[in-house]
Structure formats: C-alpha cells, structure tokens
Design goal:
This protein has 18 helices and 19 strands. The protein has 494 residues and is α/β, with parallel strands linked by helices. Helix 4 crosses helix 6. The longest helix is centred in the last third of the chain and has 20 residues. The two termini are 25 Å apart. Bound molecules: adenosine-5'-diphosphate and alpha-D-glucopyranose. Adenosine-5'-diphosphate binds next to helix 1, strand 14, strand 15 and helix 13. The site of adenosine-5'-diphosphate has 16 residues, from helix 1, strand 14, strand 15 and helix 13.
Length: 494
Amino acid sequence: MKILMVSSEAVPFAKAGGLGDAVSALALALARAGHDVRIVLPRYYCLDRSRLESIGGPLGVGVGFAEEFAGVYRSSLPGGAVPVYFLDHERFFGRDGIYGTKAEPDFADNPQRFAFLCRAAFQLCRSLAWIPDILHAHDWPAALAPVYLRHLEGRTEFAKTASVLTIHNLGYQGVYDKESFSFFRLPWALFHGAGFEFYERVNLLKAGLASADCLTAVSPSYAREIQTPEQGFGLDGLLRFRSADLVGILNGADLDGWDPAADPFLPANFSAGDLSGKAACKAELQRELGLPVDPARPIVAMVSRLVEQKGVGELFGPLSGSAYRVCSDMALQFAVLGSGERWCEEEVRSLAGSLPNFRARIGYDERLAHLMEAGADFFMMPSRYEPCGLNQMYSLRYGTLPIVHRTGGLADTVENYNQDTGAGTGFMFDNLTPRAIYDTAGWAVWAWYNRPEHIKAMRERAMAKRFTWDRAAAEFGKLYERALERASCRYGDA
Ligand code: ADP
Ligand code: GLC
C-alpha cells in the first residue's frame, strides 16, 4: 500500500516527545513489511535547508484569503527506505519551536500553521503524481488532513484514499478561537457539520476524529479509557459514538536504539545473562550524579517531561508530594532527569538541595537518559494517564523495574509483582495519590532488600519482553484494509 504519514514530529528531524519516535519507527516497520511509506513534515527553522534536497515547488496551497506557497525539500529516514518531504514556508515555520517556545508555549497561529501542513499534503501528492491509498494523520496537528480528505478531496483523485487518525495524546486537542475557522477555507456549515465546534471554539482533533475513516489509540487500554468521562477530555461521547472504528494498537519500542547489549551511550554493555555491565553503569551513574557509590542501595530513576500528565503533582507537589518522604524514609537513591513546568523544575532543584539521596538534572539529555535506564534499579512513572509510554518499555529491556500507575500503556506493558509467587515485571498502584506512590516505592524497596531472588527473576522476565514495531505494523496493515473498505462506502452517507 502507498501510505502518507502527516505529522508534526518525526525523529531524527523533529521531536518534542514520544510522538516523534513513534511516527518514524512505525513508518520504518511498515516499509520493512513492504509498503511504500512517506512522511510529510514542516521544514522547521532548525532543519538546515542545505542538508535537504530541494525538489522544487513552490506548491500553491489554498488556505487563508490568498494562496500560500510552499517550497518542497526531501530527505529520508536513516536507512533510506522512507522518504520525508518538508514543506517550507517562512511565515509559518521560520522560527524556533515546533509548537511554541518557553515564552509562548502554544503559538497563536498554530491553527494556520498546521492547517497549511494538512492542506499542502494533498498538493504535495499531486505534484509527485503519487496518490496514497492511506492518509495516516497523527494527533491534533495533522487532524485536518482527514477532514480535508472527507470534505474537499473526496471526489478528486483522492476518492479512493482512506484516512486513519492516531491518538497519541488526547490531552492536546488544538482548541482555538472560532475565527481561525475561516483560514481553513471550508464552508461555514462544516463548523458544526464536520465536528469542529467545541464550546463555541474550533477543536481540530475533534473534527479529525469525526472525519477519519478509522481511529487508533496507542494502546488497547488507552483506547478504552478515552471513551470514559474521566479520561475522555470532553471527547468521550464522540469516541463512544465512533467506537466501532476505534482500535488500540500498542506502540513498539525501538529495540536497536535501546539495546543494553549494544548501547553506545553506556560505559559498559550488558544482557540478561551477564549483568556485570549493569553494575558498572550503576556505579557510573552514582559517580556522575554525586551520589555515594554503593551497589547495595537501590536507585529509583525518572526521565520525563515534568508536566501534570506525568504525575508530578503527586510526586513533587510542594506541600503534598511524596518524593520528600520517599527519600527521607527509605534507604534508596532517587535520580530525576527532565524539564517542563517551572514550578516543578524549581521544586526538583530544591529537593536536590535538601536531600542527600536525591539528585536531579534539569534539561534534555539523551546520553544521561540511557545511563539512567541502564544504571537504575527501578523506574518511576506514576503518570496520571499514559497513552502508551516509551520509557517503561526501555526500562523493562534494561532490567530496571518500573513503578507505575495502572493506566493506559503502562497497564498493557507492565505486570504487577506478586510477592507470594515472585511473578511480575514491575510494581503498580491503582489510584494516583501521593500515598500510593509512597507505598508502592516502599514495596519495591522492601522487595529489593528482602526478596532479592524475586528481583533477579523479575529482571530476567522484564529483559526478555519484546514490544516490536513489526507487530504494530502488522496490526496497522490490517486496520488499513478496514479503512479502505470504509472509504469505499463513503458516498453512502454523503
Ligand atoms: P511523552 O511523549 O508523553 O513525553 P513517552 O514515554 O512516549 O512520553 O516518550 C518520552 C520520550 O522522550 C522518550 O524517548 C524519553 O526517553 C524522552 N525524554 C523525555 N524527557 C527527556 C529528557 N529530559 N532527556 C532525555 N530524554 C527524554
Ligand atoms: C504521546 C504519549 C505517550 C506515547 C507517545 C507515542 O506523547 O504521551 O504515552 O508513548 O505519544 O505514541
């Protein structure tokens, strides 16, 4: 099949979170399965044009009041099997930031910027004389692509193209002033008719969810959770309405980039059969962070965006968070790497100043993220909600047992410890509260000191887990067939 991925992120070109990892890894796996997969991205300012191949343009794109023009550049994902096209537009993308900057986290013209991306995707295909069977859009920035397909392109050369919209995170929907709608160049009847309307504002994701032929969420549990009022962020009704077309497909993890036996970021490599390298990584991590070098002390690590979604309120909240007591009451070491909300960065810094066994690095650091996964004994991921989550999968592979909230992809990838039988691959709690984090960290530390044979067996079990992108790609292959069937009856309800 010919598949076009429309996305705002794809590594190694643009990444703000797991979305960038997931889009590229899925594209590569689909290409391995024999599909003709291509990706379209904005040419962000940070992507040096001289390292991309210019393939012409400008493409005329029908958005706004006058036509906008896009330059087109090309490169490919590492390995060369997946072409990546970049749309160049000075006013929309000639600045730092994918969605915004520290000073302006969500650019005011994001609806225009991403509408331009989605509309231009069709012009790009026309200019390449390459009409995809599947238009696969990711999250709110690409959500207009299925809307354009259904409402503007349904009777053009795209008549047979089917659309799939993947929800990586329902917490971000792209909600903007109603006025932005006129930029999309869709008839006003579609403000309600295509599902844009959300409390008298424009909701891009909502329109995409109403328009796409098939919907996916990045884990089976998350696909169920988002249909409930608690986790539906106001869209659970629509998602229940579309539940027959919504499936959960668990992401894979990048098994090459995150392989303890070959990881170039580590001072020593290791495998389930020989964990001596892991001990060396632990010592290195302790040295690097200025913690006492002690193999007997368990290290709990956390690598995360420091935002509400990740449970940082319950962990680091200045008055109520449990991290202070976890560190002062328990014989462990705690290491945090992350950046995000200012209050949280400050709180984490101040904990590091007052607790001898707590260390933090504020910022984004790929190498340290690998060393922490490798050198730690436990991985803290108390997310409020987690559509899939990549870090717990990396942790399992590195024999670092996750301590998690039973939600979304965490529930689908981690098995809870059973202290009678020693079964499991991690430690879970059901309701996210500071107390639950405290108790569950305490449980893990108890097992560390009192059930070392269980910890050893859990590690081996965890390291044997394989969450592959090839399996995810095979599930998407089936879903694409279904989407094509749905698309072929599109005119029944037109
Ligand atoms: P999300 O996309 O919601 O942030 P995921 O678990 O899917 O969560 O993906 C997070 C990705 O970002 C992982 O690849 C993780 O290693 C990486 N990451 C997050 N924060 C940092 C950081 N401060 N330094 C290095 N890598 C980080
Ligand atoms: C989002 C989610 C995360 C998921 C990632 C990739 O960033 O927050 O849970 O792993 O997308 O699908």
